[in-house]
Amino acid sequence: MITYFVHRDGKTTRTDALDRAWLDPAANVTIWADVEKPTADDGKILREVFKLHDLAVEDALQPLQHPKIEPYDTFLYVVLHGIDFKREEHAFVTQDVDFFLGRTFLVTVHESGTRSITELAEICGKNEFVLREGTVGVFHRIVDRMVDHYRPEVDELEQWLDEIEQEVLAAPGGDLTSQILEVKRDISSMRRVVVPQRDIVGRLARREFDVINQEMAYRFRDIYDHLVRLADESFIFQDRVTGILDAHLASVSNRLAFVSKVLAAVAVIFGPLTVITGLFGMNVTLPQFPGGEHAQFWWITGTMTVITGIIYAMFRRKDWL
User: Fold this and answer.
1) Same domain, yes or no, for 58 and 191?
2) Fewer beta carbons under 10 A from the terminal one: N or C of the chain?
3) What Å distances lie between residue 48 and 41, 42, 57, CA to CA?
């Protein structure tokens, strides 16, 4: 489904049909065509009405594309990703938005409604100033909103990282490995989303393309600064989660070593006792301690107690327990 926002004669209107005459630069009309859940018929309109390249349209109709920017003769093809962090799903869910940026038209293609486009579409229906700035202005506003939506998601990820870090410090040796690995995976997803888009917006800010004027380059530079900070934070998060994982594994290893040491000490203590009880439990005549038959039990018990005390004292002296 294609929704058109048309700005002409100082007014912005929303329509479901497009007059091809509006695409003529002499008509002085600005068009924003939003394609949601594109179909083959929508692709035909993009090729025949907007005169977009077949390869670019084919990429736009695909469900997922990597962030990229490709200049053509009459338009600029840009793919950017929005993120929606789902903590309960332990994943950064990405949705790519394809932009076809021309001097008189902007086409956005996406699978389902995005927050950035939905918010701007509501504003366009009430105010004329959005499309009054031209297609690049609309493009900038969408990208700016997409990047603004990154911040709360990244803050939530950082909060989750802080909670796990506190758990590792408060309860060393707990079963936190799976949670740490989930955070590590989310951070990797964040880097895959942010870093390529930082490079793309950086190219827009450097005015590599004629459609971007100096004023808009300044605006894209501000977005680029935000993406640089987000990219830097992703590297910091990666270092933090690696340190947390190392600390957790070291804690688990220390706990395992302590348990093994205790078990070894118990085995050493009960070793002599097992020998003594096994020796005196044999059905053969053995030398007896003084005091008669009834005193043998107490002699054996006392001997085992003394041996146990000596071994325990030796372990304590060497700080093995």
Assistant:
1) yes
2) N
3) 11, 10, 11
Q: What CATH number should be reported for the domain holding residue 215?
A: 3.30.460.20
Q: Where would I find the beta strands (DSSP E) of the chain?
A: 2-8, 11-15, 30-36, 68-71, 76-86, 91-101, 105-110
**Tell me, what's the pLDDT at 25?**
83
Is the pLDDT reported for residue 88 higher than 60? Answer: no
Phi-psi region of 68 (alpha: psi -120 to 50; beta: other; left: phi over 0): beta
Instruction: Tell me, yes or no, whether 180 and 278 share the same domain.
Output: no
Instruction: Report d(CA 195, CA 201) in Å as an integer.
Output: 10
Do 135 and 221 lie in a common domain?
yes
What count of residues does the chain have? Answer: 321
> Does the structure show a pLDDT above 60 at 304?
yes
Domains held by the chain: number: 2
**pLDDT, position 99:** 95
Query: Residues 15-60: pLDDT tens digits?
Result: 888 888 888 888 888 899 999 888 899 899 999 998 999 999 998 8
In which domain, by residue range, is 145 found? Answer: 2-252
Q: At what angle do helices 177-205 and 135-148 cross, to 10 degrees?
A: 160
Which one is predicted more confidently, 217 or 1? 217
Residues 52, 141, single domain; the answer is: yes
Domain C-terminal end among 199, 228, 252: 252
| Whole-number percent of the chain with pLDDT over 70 | 95
DSSP state of 22: G
CA 115 to chain centre: 19
Neighbours of 5 (CB within 10 A): 21
Residue 302 and residue 238 share a domain: no
Average pLDDT, the chain: 84
d(C-alpha 192, C-alpha 110), whole Å: 19
Q: What DSSP state is assigned to residue 282?
A: S
CATH number, residue 289: 1.20.58
Please indicate, yes or no, whether residues 220 and 280 belong to a single structural domain of this protein: no
